[in-house]
Design brief:
The complex is a heterodimer. By secondary structure, chain A is of the alpha/beta class. Helices cover 44% and strands 18% of the residues of chain A. Chain A has 2 domains: 2-136 and 265-300, Periplasmic binding protein-like II (D-Maltodextrin-Binding Protein, domain 2), CATH 3.40.190; 138-263 and 316-355, D-Maltodextrin-Binding Protein, domain 2. In chain A, β2, α2 and β3 form a beta-alpha-beta unit. The two termini of chain B are 41 Å apart. Chain B has 10 helices and 14 strands. In chain B, a hairpin with a 2-residue loop joins β11 (374-382) and β12. Chain B is an alpha+beta fold. In chain B, α1 runs antiparallel to α3. Classes of the chains: A alpha/beta, B alpha+beta. The A-B interface holds A 107-110, 127-128, 195, 331-337, 339-342, 345 and B 65-74, 76-77, 80-85, 88, 96-98, 123-125. Chain A: This is Extracellular solute-binding protein.
């Protein structure tokens, strides 16, 4: 009874509140089983449209399971999960988030249960058998070929910094990226940029700040600005979203930086308070399985560790073999990114540089 | 030999106990060492990480800027399954970052001189904690900053148990090998005892010669005592034998005279009753005389074996002489007697007189107690044994009584008929010559047979 009214309340909020203003980013979708024997509640910081093929495919395997999927912003998901863990409340049976550092923090705080899988998982995408990475998503640059002439197309982080420096007038206010203060994934990517290549990160941030970069909360918002023509280049967008945008509008082109490309693996975690641990494990196994991975590559996330790059993507032939791809290792090192003081300092520095004359960034 | 009280099992049990407790001690020690080694190894990581965090702090505009280094967590991440908790405590005791509820069980100030390591609990987990201190001296901010860094102990426990398991396997293998070696060594050392007991066990009851076995020094007093005792027993036995022989000899003379006197009594003058009594007296005196002769014969046999050397003799000759002596001329003519011997000599090692005495006794016994109408005496060779057989058509001796009839005076108790010393002498002689006295039940056409069996003498000139 209480759960139902809670859901209703959430639904109400979803309808009433404007997008992005509330606690919930996307929406909630229930994949009702014909004859329901079990119900799996998944809270994910992943677009419902990306998840839909996977959820439906899993339901084809387990037709008696109703899947209840709620889409969140990464930070909201983390906050909710932390509170649920502290209170010992069961909110979700499975958490999916692109902000793996937050999942690692949850696991470190003892908020996760281990799930032993028989599927093959790369070493860097598994910590304690509690946090699993189930996707392979490069952080890419997207540009609109109608607005960026071929000679301007940046192919590395340095290229972008140089472009913004040399043609500052042309690209002023025409570049977009995450607002790392709002987006956990944006923060994680920027933090890793600063660790992998501190010098080029400094230069790039400087250039982005001077170019009065447009910052948005989320992938899709950045891509929407690109599609709408407000900006010409989007920096540090997850490949899956970028490719989906490319499929909708072929003028949007994707570049994998050739100096290094961060690779993020979307994380999955079974909370300690999960009511359906076995079922959550089964879904997790599905995500990691060959069938799930193939489905994800074909319909949801487009990139994969061993497959070729999707058609039309500009980048090295193989991210893994060339060493250009830098997987963000799911492990305790991510705790450094999660440190409060670190977060405060890093976002502080970021906004100080980005602020400049930029009307988007207001001091907090 | 009862195994539960055997020296071997008692010794082995003690060795096993010592080994078991020794091994348990070693395994416990190994566990302690392994735990210490694991702590030592992972404490270095912990200390290194705390050190990196401390080094990455700086004072900026009067405030402590904390730059949490990823490398510190990567270092701790080498223990792949362990969770990490930390807290940075500022100069005023405030939490600068990290887990606010992570408390140190010791005074933070203790870490000023050297990093402190302590095992404690955080949340529901066992953790190993280090506390590092860093002095900050800035015009605007000075004092001590502490880094509390804790890590769960899964990797340590895993390493400890792995090391301990290996040590345990090694110790177990060693203990088993030692126990096996100890068992072998014990068997080997106890062999003389086993040998000695076997020699004693296998000994013939009459054999009172000293034991001739090689024994280790520890056992020689024991064997010496046995031999001393046997020698004394042997001397006593000889004295007794000689006494009996002498007594028999002394009694024989008056007995002979008594028999002569008896034969002189004219029984015609006696009443029927008196004649009857006289006949019984004569029978008893003859019996007494026979027994005395047997006693003498026995004493003679014993004496001869003490003094005479054994020589090769032909069993046929001895048997023929014994046959002649044992079968009296006054034998009941209804009894058919036969003697049978092979054409070749049957050579055995022995003393002619003793052997004849033994044979006479066997034939005599058969005539007195067995034969009704038939007595056969045979000498033959079978499977390298010389056999002297006396077969009669009498009732024989039941199998159950075989063991006791070879004992002296054995049959006198259960039967009115006195067999006396006959079989005892025969058996003694056969045993002393390396053979045995045996019986064979009546089967088919054969009657009950008494056999003296001796080894054939090999004709070797050595």
């Amino acid at each position: 009874m209480i759960r139902t009214s809670l859901r209703l309340a959430i639904l109400f909020l979803l309808l009433v509140l404007p997008r992005g203003a509330g606690a919930v980013e996307g929406d909630r979708q229930v994949f009702q089983a014909a004859v329901e024997k079990a119900r799996l509640v998944i809270h994910g910081a992943t677009d419902i449209e990306a998840m839909r093929p996977l959820l439906e495919d899993f339901q084809a395997l387990r037709p008696d399971v109703t899947l209840d999927y709620v889409d969140y912003l990464t930070n909201d998901l983390f906050r909710e999960a932390t509170e649920a863990c502290a209170a010992g409340k069961s909110v979700a049976d499975l958490l999916l988030s692109s902000s793996v550092d937050q999942l690692v923090r949850l696991a470190n705080d003892g908020c996760a249960v281990a799930h032993r899988t028989t599927e093959r998982v790369p070493d860097w995408a598994n910590w304690r058998e509690e946090v699993y990475g189930f996707t392979f998503e490069p952080a890419v640059m997207v540009y609109d070929e109608r607005r960026v002439p071929p000679e301007d197309v940046p192919r590395s982080h340095n290229d972008l910094a140089e472009l913004l420096r040399q043609k500052s007038e042309t690209y002023r206010g025409r570049v977009g990226t995450y607002d790392i203060r709002v987006s956990g994934i944006g923060y994680l990517l920027a933090f890793n940029d600063s660790r992998v290549a501190p010098t080029s990160y400094g230069r790039l941030l400087e250039s982005l700040g001077r170019a009065e970069t447009v910052t948005r909360c989320c992938n899709n918002e950045v891509l929407n600005e690109l599609r709408g023509g407000t900006i010409a280049i989007a920096y540090n967008v997850l490949g899956s979203y970028a490719y989906a945008a490319h499929l909708r509008d072929p003028h949007l082109r994707i570049v994998l930086p050739r100096d290094y490309t961060l690779i993020l693996s979307r994380g999955a975690l079974i909370p300690a308070t999960s009511r359906e641990k076995a079922l959550a494990g089964a879904f997790l196994d599905y995500l990691l399985s060959e069938r799930g991975q193939k489905k994800a590559r074909d319909a949801s996330f487009y990139f994969s560790a061993n497959g070729p790059l999707p058609r039309g993507v500009d980048g090295p032939a193989s991210l893994v073999d060339t060493g250009i791809g830098r997987p963000i290792r799911i492990g305790p090192a991510l705790l450094a990114a999660q440190d409060q003081a670190q977060h405060r300092r890093f976002t502080g520095e970021w906004s100080a540089v980005m602020r400049g004359k930029n009307p988007d960034i207001t001091p907090r | 030999m009862k195994t539960e009280t055997s020296l071997f099992s008692r010794l082995l049990l003690r060795v096993a106990l010592v080994l078991f407790f020794g091994a348990a001690g070693i395994v416990t020690a190994a566990w302690f060492y392994a735990a210490a080694a694991a702590d030592e190894a992972f404490d270095r990581l912990l200390q290194g990480a705390a050190f990196q965090i401390a080094e990455n702090m700086s004072v900026e505009e009067g405030e402590l800027a904390i730059n949490m280094p990823s490398s510190a967590f990567e270092l701790l991440g080498l223990a792949t399954r362990d969770r990490i908790f930390y807290r940075v405590v500022g100069t005023k005791g405030e939490t600068l970052t990290g887990y606010e509820d992570l408390q140190s069980p010791v005074d933070l100030a203790e870490s000023r001189r050297a990093p402190v390591f302590v095992s404690t609990r955080y949340g529901n987990s066992d953790v190993r904690m280090t506390i590092g201190a860093r002095a900050v001296s800035d015009p605007m901010l000075s004092g001590w900053v502490y880094i509390i860094l804790a890590q769960t102990t899964e990797a340590r426990t895993a390493l400890t148990s792995e090391l301990t398991t290996r040590a345990t396997v090694l110790v177990a293998v060693m203990a088993c090998a030692t126990l096996f070696a100890a068992a072998l060594a014990l068997r080997l050392s106890l062999r003389p005892v086993v040998d000695l007991s076997r020699v004693l066990h296998d000994r013939e009851p009459q054999d009172l010669t000293p034991l001739a076995v090689e024994v280790p020094r520890e056992l020689s007093p024991f064997v010496g005592s046995i031999n001393y005792f046997m020698r004394r027993l042997d001397e006593r036995m000889r004295l007794l034998q000689r006494f009996i022989g002498d007594s028999a000899h002394q009694i024989r003379t008056p007995l002979t005279a008594l028999l002569a006197q008896l034969s002189l009594i004219d029984d015609k003058g006696l009443s029927d009753d008196g004649r009857h009594h006289l006949a019984r007296v004569r029978a008893r005196v003859e019996e007494l005389s026979h027994l005395t002769n047997q006693l003498l014969g026995h004493a003679m046999v014993i004496h001869r074996f003490d003094s005479e050397k054994l020589v090769p003799i032909d069993m046929r000759d001895i048997a023929r002489r014994a046959f002649k002596r044992a079968v009296p001329l006054s034998l009941d003519p209804d009894i058919v007697v036969a003697f049978e011997a092979p054409d070749e000599p049957v050579t055995v090692l022995g003393d002619a007189l003793s052997l004849r005495e033994a044979m006479v006794n066997v034939i005599d016994n058969a005539l007195r107690h067995g034969a009704v109408a038939r007595l056969e005496v045979r000498v033959r060779v079978e499977a390298a044994r010389a056999l002297f057989e006396v077969e009669d058509d009498g009732p024989g001796i039941p199998r159950a009584r075989w063991p006791e009839v070879t004992r002296r005076f054995a049959s006198s108790r259960s039967e009115r008929d006195v067999s006396g010393l006959g079989f005892a002498i025969a058996s003694e002689v056969a045993t002393l010559l390396g053979g045995a006295l045996r019986f064979r039940e009546a089967i088919g056409g054969h009657g009950f047979t008494t056999i003296i069996e001796l080894p054939l003498h090999q004709e070797t000139k050595a």
